[in-house]
Amino acid sequence: MANTAQTRSSSSQAVKQNAHNSSQRSTLRTAIKAVRKAIQAGDKAAATTIFQASVSKIDSIADKKIIHKNKAARHKSRLAAALKALSA
């Protein structure tokens, strides 16, 4: 248990921040799944628009340092490759 007012405050801030970051990570996963689902359906036009929105969301979350920028780049690259394979 926190012994000082400062550590109590820090502890409650950490809980709030963890909840916010968890929500953001969930949004990220949902965006990635949406692209994969559109690619699975075979609709290139829909997949492209969803991909563009997802890239924006991925970059936003990486800029906030919720995920590492290299992880964001890896997700974007894999999704782009899957989208490209759909048209081939």
State the gist of this model:
With 88 residues, the chain is mainly alpha-helical.
Explain what this protein looks like in three dimensions.
There is one protein chain. The mean pLDDT is 94. This protein is 86% helix and 0% strand. The protein is mainly α and 88 residues long. α1 packs antiparallel against α2. It has one domain: Ribosomal protein S20 (Methane Monooxygenase Hydroxylase, Chain G, domain 1, Up-down Bundle), CATH 1.20.58. The protein is built from three helices and no strands.
Low-pLDDT ranges: none
Q: If you compute it from the alpha carbons, what radius of gyration comes out, rounded to the nearest whole angstrom?
A: 18 Å
Biggest sheet layout: none
Q: CATH class, please?
A: Mainly Alpha
**Helical content, roughly?**
over 70%
Coarse shape: elongated
How many individual β-strands? 0
Measured by DSSP, the beta-strand proportion falls in: under 5%
Number of structural units classed as domains = 1
CATH superfamily: Ribosomal protein S20
According to CATH, the fold-level topology is: Methane Monooxygenase Hydroxylase, Chain G, domain 1
Query: How large is the count of helical segments?
Result: 3
**Order of helical and strand elements:** HHH
Mean pLDDT rating: 94
Structural class call reads mainly alpha
Q: Note the gap between the termini.
A: 59 Å
**CATH architecture name:** Up-down Bundle
Protein name: Small ribosomal subunit protein bS20
GO molecular function: small ribosomal subunit rRNA binding; structural constituent of ribosome
Region (Disordered): 1-28
Pfam family, one: Ribosomal_S20p
